[in-house]
Each structure stands twice: as structure tokens, then as C-alpha cells.
Amino acid sequence: MVNRKLVGAHYGLIDWLVQRITGVVMAVFTVVVGFALSEGVGSSYERWYGFMSSTPMRFISFLCIVSLCWHAWIGVRDTWMDYVQPAGIKLTLHVLTLLSVIGCGGWAVQILWRL
Amino acid sequence: MTKRILKFNIYRYDPDVDRKPYLQDIEVEVDATDRKLLDALVKLKAKDDSIAFRRSCREGVCGSDGMNINGTNGLACLADLSTFPDGKTIVLRPLPGLPVIRDLIVDMTQFFKQYHSIKPYLINNDPLPERERLQSPEEREELNGLYECILCACCSTACPTFWWNPDKFVGPAGLLAAYRFIADTRDQATNERLDNLEDPYRLFRCHTIMNCVEVCPKGLNPTKAIGKIKDMMVRRII
Ligand code: SF4
Ligand code: SF4
Ligand code: FES
Fold first, then answer.
1. Do the beta carbons of residue B21 and residue B11 sit within 8 Å?
2. What is the CA angle A90-A94-A98, rounded to 5?
3. Is residue A9 part of a domain?
4. Residues B201, A5 contacting (CB under 8 angstroms)
């Protein structure tokens, strides 16, 4: 096979946008949790439990987990794209990254929903 | 300024003769009338005519004498000799990341391939007007800081992303040129141009490191142009 340079997949923009948006979600989550901690929700297990299992917190912590996973996937894949040239190794790394991100995401959701 | 001795440490490689590249220490005397690094290089060449470098206009217009000067890319003809401290060796290397043809001369094929890939010419299928295609002063204003690029490759060869993926990433010079036509109100291929850059490599490999801005001898800002292209892409989908 002739080794032609292949470019033109149309997900560059979407991934770039997603990276910014998920970044904002994580930043908001961090601020909310930071604020709550400064208000002393971490002082006892009961308070912490009540805080994390409230509906708004369930909502944004789920969003945060999804954002973190998505953000991590794009960020790590970007690194492979930059530095790894052979297509076979690159694909393997992409798949491994994707699988571990999905696995971690699922695990985090299980922990959260156990509350 | 009177006469002055300049010490150089220069990357030398002639594939016909040398098995591998080496560094040469060499000194040259310059006069008060020698103002730019290029003047000193011309004297050097008179002393040792085996040293090879490109140059033509000697005034920052042709873009041919881009090289790595004390670790930073720049044009020899614009580098002021008075800015080099006395007694300190001036280190000259070819532009990084491109194959070396000989000494300070690099093979720019890849660089120009990327430049051509963005179709660096006006695309307009309307019948030619009698005199010229007009723009308002504001529309013309947008092209300032874009059209002045002299394709010296100082920026692209300072860009880590271009080092890793020169075959897929267009590079700052090519992207600046791309925006020059995307921003041109007389051009009719805006959508095609944006489509052409919307993949994960061609434009989005740029990580806003801004090395390109730092080295551009014409004071241009490829990162800003790249940002504006991204902006247009976003506005196109919302
Ligand atoms: S801002 Fe982008 S184009 Fe400029 S040096 Fe950095 S990665 Fe390269
Ligand atoms: S943008 Fe500046 S550094 Fe890059 S090729 Fe053009 S003139 Fe040279
Ligand atoms: S010799 Fe033309 S730009 Fe330096």
C-alpha cells in the first residue's frame, strides 16, 4: 500500500470545543465543592453525606465525572497524536485510553450512586 | 563602533564530504559599517568559502536567511550586531526540525507543501470586474498583520507541533496565510477553507505555545490568526 498522508477527519473542532466546555464544568464543580468545604461541610460524615447526596450535587457531580472523562480522553489522545507516529501503536493506545477512561467513569458513577 | 572581532560557533554539514555534522569555531573581524549579522556572515564566507547559507535581499524582505541564532530563530539580515555582547560566541544553527541540505541551509519542501495546501491565492469565480475588486477600509484593515508574511519559516520551525507532525499540521506560517484568505472579503471559498482545516491535525494540533509569535521577524502573530479561525469555525456551527 502506498503510504499517503491522511488528514481530514472532521472532529477537530468539536473536540476542541468539548475540551473547553468540560473544563468549565470541572471548574464550576471545584468552586462549588471548595465553597462548601470552606463552609464546613467536611466537618462530619453526616454533613458530607447530606451534601453529596443532595439532588443538585448529584446533578453536577455526575456532570463533572462525565466532563472529566471526556476531557481526559481528548487530552490523553492529543498526546498520542502529537508524539506517536506508527498507526498501529497509536490505535492501540487510543483504544486502551478510551477503555480505561470508560472504566474509571463507570466506577466513579457507581461510587456516587451508592450514596 | 570601531573594528571588532566576532567569535562564531557554526553548525557545519556537507553530506558529500562529512559523515556527520560538526560544530566549527571561527572568528571574523567586522568594521563599524557592518551592522547586521548577515554582514558578518558575508565576511565569514570571504574567509572560509565552504560555509553555506542562503540570503538575497539583505533587508528582511525575501525571507531566505532564516536561521537559529543563539538558540532563537531569526533573520541574519535583521539581527543587529550591536545586540551581541562583546567576546561572547555567536552560535548559529540551521532552522530546527527541517532536513539540512548543507550547513545553515535547510530543505523547505515540507514547509512549502503545507503552505500550498491551504490554497494561498484568492478564489473568486465571479466575472472579473472592469477595474478591481473593492473592499471597504475596515475590510482591508483585517488583512493587516497577515499579508506581510515573508515565508521565512522562522515560526513553523520554532513550533514543537510542527516538529512532531510537519506532514499533517499546517504550521503557524501556513495557518496565518490561511486566515489571510479566510479573512479576505473578496474570497468566495471561506467554507471550503474552514472545512479543510477542521480536522484534528491541520489546525487543532496547535497548543497555543506561542513560540511562533516570539520569533516572527516581521512581528506577526500567527497564534492570533489561529484563534480567529477557531472562532469562525465555532460561529459557523452555532
Ligand atoms: S501557537 Fe500554535 S502554531 Fe504557534 S508555536 Fe505554538 S503550537 Fe505552534
Ligand atoms: S509568520 Fe513571521 S516567522 Fe512565520 S514565516 Fe511569516 S514572516 Fe516568517
Ligand atoms: S536576506 Fe532577505 S530576509 Fe534576510
1. yes
2. 170
3. no
4. no
- Looking at domain B109-237, does it have CATH number 1.10.1060.10? yes
Model-level pTM? 0.92
B202: chain A residues, CB-CB within 8 Å: 7, 12
Nearest chain B Cα to A16, which residue?
B204
Domain with CATH 1.10.1060.10 in chain B: 109-237
Q: Which helix (H) or strand (E) holds B162?
A: helix B160-164
A52, B176 in Cβ contact below 8 A? no
With respect to residue A38, please indicate whether it lies within any of the assigned structural domains. Answer: yes
pLDDT along chain A (115 residues), means of 10: 72 94 97 95 93 93 96 96 94 97 95 80
Classified by CATH at the fold level, domain B3-106 comes out as Ubiquitin-like (UB roll) (3.10.20)
Mutate to test the interface with B, among A14, A82, A84, A90 (most CBs of B within 10 A): A82
Residue B188 DSSP class = S
Q: Phi and psi of B80, rounded to 5°?
A: -75, 125
Element (H, E) at A60: helix A55-83
User: What is the Cα Rg of chain B in Å?
Assistant: 20
- CA B63 → CA A106, B40, B217, distances in Å? 54, 18, 9
Q: In the block, which residue shows the cell 463533572?
A: A64
Query: How much distance in Å is there from the Cα of B52 to the middle of ligand 2?
Result: 22
DSSP-derived 3-state class of residue A30: helix
